[in-house]
Amino acid sequence: MLACQRKFFVFARISLSVKFEATTLPIGGGSPGHRGERSRIGNESRYLLSPASPGGRRKLVRLTRLLLARPFDENDAVIYFDEVKVPWDRVFVHRDTDMCRAQFHDTAGHIMQNYQAQIRLSVKLRFLAGVAQRIAETIGTTNMPQVREKLGWLAAKVAMVEGMLLGLEVGGGMYEGYYIPNKHLVYAAQVVTQELYPQIIQTVRELAGGALIMLPSSQADYNHPEIASIIERTQISPAMSPEERVKFLKLAWDAVGSEFASRHVQYEMFYAGAQFVTCGHSYRTYGWSAATGMIDSILSAYRRQNCS
Fold this sequence. Notes:
There is one protein chain. By secondary structure, the chain is an alpha+beta fold. The chain contains nine helices and eight strands. The chain folds into two domains: about 10-105, no CATH class; about 110-285, Butyryl-CoA Dehydrogenase, subunit A, domain 3 (Up-down Bundle), CATH 1.20.140.10. The chain has helices at about 95-105, 110-140, 145-170, 185-210, 225-235, 240-255, 260-270, 275-285, 290-300, and strands at about 10-15, 25, 50, 60-65, 75-85, 90-95, 175, 180. Strands 2-1-5-4 form a four-stranded mixed β-sheet, with no helix packed on it. The protein has a two-stranded antiparallel sheet with strand order 3-6. It has a two-stranded antiparallel ribbon with strand order 7-8. It is flat, with a radius of gyration of 25 Å.
């Protein structure tokens, strides 16, 4: 089963001492900015609100997206607070730009939530590698050198992500009594996989070719004897029965070609923010002093000689 995370976008008119109209707070995404940073467009501090409230409060409304595959999909929802009263002792951030950033980035919060995202993604990529291999077996192309080249590339990329996951775990350290993953390697994995995921999907589609196009429209086609007979004669595979071929290729289509698959591509590319956001995280957490120190060490080892 693929692990999944939940992300809620909160729209609220919350009763505190004052009223906030159409307040929004994205949980887990977007750019954190830097300490002391303020928006150049208007005053965004009025949107900086981080409360906690029981889910059963009156006038708290959930708008949940329909799940196409419950065990494999994430449960996104819009939570709308329509004049929901939240006691002040349940408000963590109120109109404070620095604190809004700090609750994620001056704690281990942002690292831990994105650590589990890399665990989820590594399992997901292993599943797609299995789909790719099974496609080649199903249509009988496994022994073609060009196909093995693509499968080898795919296997290497999946192993790379698994290696980054192991690296960020091994390279971690203690924080407030808890062991947390290596911060930079978490962000590095996000930068790499934002570009990698659509490439892997494209590779699986290329391996499948037209096999995903000539499938029955639904299982209802099997209820018609004449159509079922044609399916039996045309859905041929060297590795499985016609019905098993259709069953598997429908799964492959769900993974790489359906609306469900398209949403997953968009999600993997942007769940952590646009790429300039993740690249920004990577830039600010990389050990630049160690890298430039290597240059300084070499340059300091010799002096210009006087040739006169």
